[in-house]
Write a structure and sequence with these properties.
Elements lengths: L2 H16 L6 H6 L4 E8 L3 E2 L3 H10 L16 E2 L4 E7 H32 L5 E3 L9 H10 L13 E3 L1 H7 L2 H11 L6 E5 L2 H10 L3 E5 L3 H9 L6 E5 L17 E3 L2 H4 L6 E7 L8 E3 L1
Parallel strand pairs: 5-10, 6-7, 7-8, 8-9, 9-10
Antiparallel strand pairs: 1-4, 1-11, 2-3, 11-12
Length: 290
């Protein structure tokens, strides 16, 4: 078992606990263990993502799949109708397929959607970022999928990068006292990002020495004015209302990144299934779709 798979073990155990793996010991003991041929069927055009989770799910149950044999497929664009084949004991294939497929489908959906934004932004050199608007329990998977899709992670938690948002400013009484509070919380190498809501607030942020700002729901005209104020070493991130059908208008020189919550909260579904073939019967009609 590689380091990556070891790192996923706690999550995989939790997913199978949710699936009530332990609920019927007699059923588990009676499932046939003969080797079957498994066919992962691509049923929609997609960027395949999540194979480490897919493999780890089967191996958690006692499978012996080697991720290195699947690695060439991770992040690859597939078209509807393509198939990836491998072998497992029937008991493990049947018991693990739903958890494995659910994880693979979710990751592939996020990676596929992210890649659409990244492809549009490629010529602009602007980075596409995710947000913390992730599915509870699946943040690691979804943020991994954003990276496979060509995007970048914004932050993983509230505390790895401090981000001063509107609610902080409301509570502390403005940007300056909020900035002073988070500077006291800051570790030596930790960054602070400030959500900016007006040009006046941006000017104050520059006065305070803020290096990373996120312009929240700025109009195109106001974004251009904000860029005129940009100082050396400052990064400008755009956020709010950016979609596939309007992202190109935000490709403005001086913008460093665009964060898009929809990468994880609104990625369209992709379709995958798994079929098996009983090698001990050997007829094509004995192939069933789960």
């Amino acid at each position: 078992m590689g380091l990556l798979e070891k790192g996923l073990q706690a999550d995989i155990a939790r997913f199978f606990e949710e699936d009530d793996l332990q609920g019927n010991a007699y059923y588990l003991s009676e499932l046939p263990e003969r080797i079957v041929e498994c066919h992962l069927k691509i049923k929609s055009d997609l960027r395949l993502c999540g194979l480490p989770y897919f493999i780890a799910a089967f191996n958690f149950l006692g499978g012996n799949l080697n991720y290195e044999q699947f690695k060439k497929h991770e992040g690859k664009e597939f078209t509807k109708g393509e198939v990836i084949s491998f072998s497992l004991p029937f008991s493990i294939a049947l018991t693990g397929e739903r958890v494995a497929l659910n994880l693979l489908q979710r990751a592939s959906a996020v990676a596929t959607y992210t890649s659409e934004f990244v492809n549009l932004a490629r010529s602009s050199h602007i980075r596409i970022l995710d947000t913390r608007k992730t599915t509870p329990g699946l943040r690691s998977l979804e943020k991994y999928a954003v990276r496979v899709g060509g995007g970048f992670n914004h932050r993983f938690s509230q505390a790895d990068v401090w981000m001063i948002k509107d609610n902080h400013k409301t509570y502390f009484g403005g940007l300056r006292p909020a900035w002073e509070f988070f500077q006291k919380m800051q570790t030596h190498y930790q960054s602070i990002v400030v959500e900016i809501h007006s040009l006046e607030e941006l000017k104050l942020a520059i006065e305070l020495g803020v290096k990373h700002v996120m312009l929240d729901n700025f109009s195109l005209e106001t974004i251009k004015k904000a860029i005129d104020l940009k100082t050396a070493g400052m990064t400008i991130e755009i956020s709010g209302g950016v979609k596939l059908n309007n992202i190109e208008q935000y490709f403005i020189k001086g913008v460093d990144a665009i964060s898009i919550g929809a990468l994880t909260h609104s990625a369209p579904h992709v379709d995958l299934s798994m079929k098996i073939k009983n090698l001990h019967i050997g007829t094509s009609k004995d192939s069933y779709e789960f």
